[in-house]
UniProtKB/TrEMBL annotation:
Region (Disordered): 1-21, 84-105, 372-395
Pfam families: TFIID_NTD2, WD40
Gene Ontology molecular function: RNA polymerase II general transcription initiation factor activity
CDD domains: WD40 (cd00200)
Classification via InterPro entries: TFIID_NTD2, TFIID_NTD2_sf, WD40/YVTN_repeat-like_dom_sf, WD40_PAC1, WD40_repeat_CS, WD40_repeat_dom_sf, WD40_rpt
Organism: Rotaria sordida
Name of the protein this chain belongs to: TFIID subunit TAF5 NTD2 domain-containing protein
Primary residence: nucleus
GO CC term, one of those recorded: transcription factor TFIID complex
Domain TFIID subunit TAF5 NTD2: 181-311
Database matches in Gene3D superfamilies: TFIID subunit TAF5, NTD2 domain (1.25.40.500), YVTN repeat-like/Quinoprotein amine dehydrogenase (2.130.10.10)
Keyword match Transcription: yes
Length: 817
């Protein structure tokens, strides 16, 4: 909701905050006896001779015009008596407003302020030397009243009058312009503390954004010292550190570094925080009414009302106040929580059942091992894969009768023609069927009593040199991206990395042979030679790819191991051939370093994200961008493809997760995310969709593993267990086991299938939303001093881990580029 703007005319000035005691000589200001508890300060407006001043004192009063008036409208005069008692008539002060022939009077009651009056009996005639000894504290109190009521012109006029009458220097350095900010924020914090425990956490949501906007306002007013004092006063508060600022520690370091107007104008953080939208806060109806009464109706702190009106958006949350832990988990985004309306569009998160690849992956003969059913074709584990067997398997697969389950239409699955996806070629179909038949029949079914084995690869001499790792789908190739712009490709089995034959040799091959793709590669003529040099074997087991001019930030390998994508600081993406070991094409379009790149599940499309605040969709057959997704003022840092290749998920520097639809929008419409999720307190490092596409899993520097429901964008649960940043994550081939790797030298395995089952059965604690690690954690594997950078499940559900060894004298926390 938007708060209505408050009037700033002199006829409806907000109630003043402070009680004022003042002294002056007989020619300028009326002195009061020292035994009076309140003081009367009457200032007439000289613009209108009909202005009435209610004062029975016989002493002469000389005052300056426009001292406490704020640009009155034409024909209107104002007479103000600050809350007090006239020393002779003992009458209560009034505010008289006259405009034309209509006159209204309103009695105001001003809050008490814990300040002491001048404890002296002052004469009506004082010398200039005596008036110079008046403490400047009283002068400051009057200025605070004017500043709290936004009377800028009156502040300057009153300062000049004070300097002229008392020969005092009232420079801006002696005036604390930050006092209204201190008073306003302290007042709101006190108001929050007075609220009951059941709803206090809802009001506390406003403290952090109010603090940031006030700090930026002081910097923009050239009050650097006061801004630093304001910042340190609240940041060092232990109560605020443990509650309000706990979710924004990373942003506080950025805010503290902003000390000039120029830095604020150029800061991407300020653009994201102030100009990328309003700070979104969800409150229950009862809390919203109390907040409206405090800020709008009571008008205790006009500065708070002004900031809330300009930069906040309040949404009514259905029902009563949410649990404090639930609110803590959903907070952390740079602009607060996510609008409810942002997650109302429909998302087709189901799989493409009509595609050949999906049918192969879900074929009953392939998954026979998990159910204990023998294969229909009778091909055992030891039976060789002959041409006859392959033809029989092909016939059984493509000519089988569709079961009732396969004929059932999934309402959440997109149409096959929604996003153009090429079908598999004939040789790709056969290779997939044969490969999956061999591997999936030996797939390990992971249970709490049958945990997976872990084969771990440690990379030595690579600390601070290796940026990223990538492994092929069949777990035979490993690609390493380095800071020196080079890419190394290693063979993880005993087969050498051979290359394609020369063009004149390819012309001699029989194109109709079904083994044409195997014959295209060079033969290993020396495999039976016992005198083969061992150094040559090592040479052929690795390849070096050079071409980038900056550090490598991301790698992605195609499903069939033919292509490798790499992105770099040089703002380019390169497509490498793993058959000829050369660069095929360079994709240009990003204007800033590219942080991540990933092939789609069907290998035809790929996506990238960059520091230029965009994510792009590409095709290996075209050099131009197919889709462009922009994120305002935030950098895109990591991404992930949905299993049905219709969506991509991205994370940005504001810690918001977004899911984008790859379907082309109508002309003139802007690409907007169909899902937004907020909850991470630090940057996200890794994203992964579940095998069925229903859930999105995210992890990063805040050590939280958050599971989101893509159907509505809600948080399912949060897994805690790691003690440092999480850089790697993978899901088993059957989709039941989640594995995470961290910089804390550990790999943790979670029972993801049981968690989802409990959620569907209503047994998952959705109120607390924090799942203890002992409930679903199956096992923890630990390394000595190796931070896990990559985790991968093989086709047989064996676990592979890859990491870089950290020397003992180095810090255990590794910064992800």
């Amino acid at each position: 909701m938007h708060f209505p703007s408050s009037s700033t005319t002199s006829s409806s000035s907000p109630s003043l905050q402070n009680q004022i005691s003042n002294t002056a000589n007989s020619n300028n200001v009326l002195f009061l006896p020292s035994n009076t508890s309140k003081m009367s300060f009457i200032i007439p407006n000289n613009n209108n001779t009909n202005n009435t001043i209610n004062n029975s004192s016989q002493q002469q009063i000389v005052s300056s015009s426009n001292i406490l008036s704020s640009t009155p409208t034409s024909g209107m005069t104002t007479s103000i008596n600050l809350n007090g008692i006239n020393p002779q008539t003992n009458s209560t002060s009034n505010i008289s407003i006259s405009s034309g022939q209509v006159t209204s009077q309103q009695r105001l009651t001003f809050p008490q302020r814990s300040t002491s009056l001048i404890p002296s009996s002052l004469s009506s005639s004082l010398s200039l030397s005596q008036s110079q000894q008046i403490p400047q504290e009283e002068f400051m109190k009057i200025l605070r009243v004017l500043q709290e009521n936004n009377m800028t012109e009156s502040v300057e006029t009153f300062r000049k009058e004070y300097q002229t009458l008392f020969n005092k220097t009232a420079t801006p350095t002696t005036i604390s312009l930050s006092e209204p900010y201190f008073n306003a924020l302290d007042g709101y914090i006190s108001y929050v503390q007075e609220q009951p425990d059941s709803s206090r956490h809802e009001f506390a949501q406003l403290i952090y954004p109010l603090f940031v906007h006030m700090y930026l306002d002081l910097i923009e007013k050239d009050q650097l010292d006061e801004a630093q004092r304001f910042f340190m006063t609240y940041v060092k508060n232990t109560n605020l550190q443990a509650t309000v600022f706990a979710s924004h520690k990373d942003d506080l370091y950025r805010i503290k570094s902003l000390i000039t107007k120029e830095q604020i104008a150029q800061s991407e953080y300020v653009k994201s925080f102030r100009h990328n939208g309003r700070y979104w806060i969800k409150l229950c109806n009862a809390s919203l009414e109390l907040l409206d009464q405090f800020l709008i109706k009571q008008q205790k702190y006009p500065l708070l009302t002004k900031i809330v009106q300009a930069y906040f958006q309040l949404e009514i949350n259905d029902g009563s106040a949410r649990n404090a832990e639930t609110q803590r988990l959903l907070s952390g985004g740079r602009l607060g929580e996510i609008k409810t309306e942002d997650n109302t569009n429909r998302m087709y998160y189901g799989l493409l059942r009509d595609h050949d690849l999906t049918r192969i992956l879900q074929h009953k003969s392939i998954l026979a091992s998990s159910t204990g059913i023998d294969n229909d074709d009778g091909a055992g584990d030891d039976q060789p894969s002959t041409s006859k067997n392959r033809k029989k398997l092909k016939k059984d697969f493509f000519n089988q009768r569709q079961s009732k389950a396969s004929l059932k239409v999934d309402p959440n699955a997109p149409q096959l023609t929604r996003i153009p996806i090429p079908e598999l070629r004939e040789h790709e179909r056969m290779d997939l069927i044969n490969t999956f038949q061999e591997d999936y029949t030996r797939m390990l079914k992971i249970t709490p009593d049958n945990l997976p084995s872990c084969c771990y690869y440690t990379l030595l001499n690579g600390y601070l040199e290796i940026n990223c790792l990538e492994i092929s789908e069949d777990s035979t190739l490993l690609a390493v991206g380095c800071k020196n712009s080079s890419i190394y490709v290693y063979s993880l089995n005993r087969q050498k990395l051979i290359t394609m034959k020369l063009p004149h040799e390819l012309e001699r091959l029989d194109k109709s042979n079904e083994h044409i793709y195997e014959q295209m590669m060079t033969n290993d003529d020396n495999k039976d030679d016992t005198n083969t040099n061992h150094d040559n074997d090592i040479l052929y087991n690795q390849r070096l790819l050079c071409g980038h001019t900056g550090p490598i930030y991301g790698l992605s390998m195609s499903r069939e191991k033919w292509f490798l994508l790499s992105c770099s600081e040089d703002c380019t993406i390169r497509l490498w051939s793993l058959l000829t070991w050369t660069c095929l094409i360079t994709f240009r379009g990003h204007t800033q370093p590219v942080f991540d790149v990933q092939f789609g599940p069907f290998g035809h499309y790929f996506a990238s994200c960059s520091l230029d605040k965009t994510a792009r969709l590409w095709c290996i057959e075209h050099a131009q961008t197919l889709r462009l997704f922009t994120d305002g003022c935030n950098d895109m840092e990591t991404l992930c493809f949905h299993p049905n290749s219709n969506y991509i998920a991205t994370s940005s520097s504001d810690r918001i997760l977004k899911i984008w639809d790859l379907l082309e929008c109508k002309e003139g419409q802007q690409m907007k995310p169909i899902r937004q999720m907020s909850g991470h307190k630090l940057n996200v490092c890794i994203l992964k969709f579940s095998k069925d596409g229903r859930y999105l899993i995210s992890a990063g520097f805040d050590r939280q593993i958050m599971i989101w429901d893509c159907s509505n964008g809600s948080l399912v649960t949060c897994l805690l267990g790691h003690s440092d940043a999480i850089f790697s994550m993978d899901i088993s081939r059957d989709g039941l086991i989640l594995c995470t790797g961290s910089v804390d030298f550990s790999i943790r395995i979670w029972n993801f299938g049981q968690l989802i089952k409990d959620k569907d059965d209503g047994k998952l604690d959705t109120v607390q939303r924090v799942t203890p690690s002992a409930k679903y954690e199956l096992v923890t594997y630990r390394t000595k001093r190796t931070s896990t950078t990559l985790i991968h499940f093989t086709r047989r559900n064996l676990l592979l881990g890859f990491g870089v060894f950290i020397p003992p004298n180095e810090s255990t926390t590794k910064t992800k580029t």
